[in-house]
């Protein structure tokens, strides 16, 4: 028995060496790309804040990005969903053109005032760059799956400065209720190393101060649970509204470049009429403010509406930072009603709305502890899990699979894409 165990450990050495090298290479590529993206994003955000009239060019920027994707980017337009599909069912190497297209499209969206995030861009760059390694080294089909997951983890970790959450996100985002532990080591190495690469390039991430953390007892637990349910409903609303608006826009406007053009007109007029400049771009100053002082109770809905309009009409970027904004401001608004410190509930909402919208409770619990300290872990876990359960079988990633249903007896088949769930239910009703 001891000889068998000894040889088993020796067999692991080539595996560890192989993935240290591959994951390290992915980390250098993804971490460097994210660093460049974050520096460029800071620059264009500063330009937009200094020249508010740029919002009137948003329709033309949307048309240009839409036209470029229409002519050159049809194979990569699915973005994060393309990466998830390729991991589940590997077919073709993700085209390298995904990197400049999503980078340029996201920077233009931010420069002219769309309400989009940054996670989608970093994840897509990380996944596309990682897939080039599989092409160059002619890796096996199963290794390709793992290296794509490592690329997702590296992109997420390096753009947010949360390496452990990034590693788990790359494992958890693929399927509801199921993790692939064969990719744990590569995802962890790539996420930690990519974060360090970004720091070496000089990336500085935003810090949030929680202050007082209440004891895990009595009313505090119940209040956080109630908040988690509300956060889950907000995530459900965001995901559902984004998908439905996107489908409606596609039905009404046949020519793809016109979709973000029309969306840009609506957003620009709304921003001007309402003075809603706080609801465009990433909104980091507003997120920070939610941790420091009470904010307007409608801020969360304002950001949700502008982000749904931006993503639903075809602007490029991500969903996660807007979800952070929605969660932090919603938590801030709920705090006095639930008799909790507003900074604490802003921090919990920051991660919990994302947990419900992306179906990634473990990654968001870890993210809470990485961003706000380990003491918030128990309360964040209650809210994130409640949000995850309440959001149901919906999510911002339509290619995400159902690994295990959130509730027993739901009768949902494994590996069904979330985007196909409505069609499946309609077929079941006809039987």
Automatic annotation (TrEMBL):
Protein location: Membrane
UniProt keyword list: Ion channel, Ion transport, Membrane, Transmembrane, Transmembrane helix, Transport
Molecular-function GO terms, alphabetical: chloride transmembrane transporter activity
Transmembrane segments: 20-41, 53-70, 146-171, 221-241, 261-280, 342-367, 379-399
Main localization category: membrane
Protein name per Swiss-Prot or TrEMBL: Voltage-gated chloride channel family protein
PANTHER family per record: CHLORIDE CHANNEL PROTEIN CLC-E, CHLORIDE TRANSPORTER
Source organism of the structure: Pseudomonas eucalypticola
Family matches, as Pfam families: Voltage_CLC
Membrane topology: Multi-pass membrane protein
GO cellular component labels: membrane
């Amino acid at each position: 028995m001891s000889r068998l165990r000894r040889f088993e450990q020796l067999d692991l050495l080539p595996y560890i060496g192989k993935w240290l090298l591959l994951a390290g290479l992915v980390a250098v590529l993804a971490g460097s790309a994210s660093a460049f993206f974050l520096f460029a994003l800071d620059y264009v955000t500063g330009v937009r804040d200094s020249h508010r009239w740029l919002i009137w060019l948003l329709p033309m920027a949307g048309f240009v990005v839409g036209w470029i994707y229409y002519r050159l980017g049809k194979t990569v337009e699915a973005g994060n969903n393309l990466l998830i599909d390729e991991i589940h069912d590997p077919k073709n190497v993700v085209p390298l053109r995904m990197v400049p297209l999503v980078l340029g499209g996201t920077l233009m969206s931010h420069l002219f005032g769309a309400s989009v995030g940054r996670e989608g861009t970093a994840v897509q760059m990380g996944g596309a760059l990682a897939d080039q390694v599989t092409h160059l080294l002619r890796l096996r089909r199963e290794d390709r799956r793992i290296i794509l997951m490592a690329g997702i983890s590296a992109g997420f970790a390096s753009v947010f400065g949360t390496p452990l959450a990034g590693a788990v996100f790359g494992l958890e985002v693929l399927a509801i209720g199921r993790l692939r532990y064969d990719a744990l080591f590569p995802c962890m190495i790539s996420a930690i190393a990519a974060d360090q690469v970004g720091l070496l390039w000089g990336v500085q991430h935003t810090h949030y101060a929680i202050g007082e953390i209440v004891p895990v007892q009595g009313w505090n637990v119940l209040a956080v649970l109630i908040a988690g349910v509300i956060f889950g409903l907000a995530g459900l609303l965001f995901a559902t509204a984004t998908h439905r608006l996107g489908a409606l826009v596609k039905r009404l406007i046949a020519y793809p470049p016109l979709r973000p053009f029309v969306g840009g007109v609506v957003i620009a007029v709304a921003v001007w009429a309402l003075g809603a400049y706080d609801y465009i771009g990433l909104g980091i100053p507003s997120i920070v403010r939610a941790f420091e002082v009470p904010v307007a109770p409608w801020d969360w809905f304002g950001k949700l509406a502008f982000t749904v309009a931006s993503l639903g009409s075809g602007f490029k970027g991500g969903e996660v930072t807007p979800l952070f904004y929605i969660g932090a401001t919603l938590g801030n608004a709920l705090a006095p009603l639930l008799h909790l410190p507003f900074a604490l509930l802003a921090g919990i909402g920051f991660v919990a709305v994302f947990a419900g919208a992306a179906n990634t409770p473990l990654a968001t619990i870890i993210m809470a502890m990485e961003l706000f300290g380990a003491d918030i872990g128990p309360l964040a876990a209650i809210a994130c899990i409640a949000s995850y359960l309440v959001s149901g079988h919906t999510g911002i990633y339509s290619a995400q699979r159902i690994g295990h249903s959130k509730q027993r007896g739901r009768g949902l088949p494994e590996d069904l894409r979330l985007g196909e769930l409505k069609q499946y239910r309609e077929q079941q009703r006809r039987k």
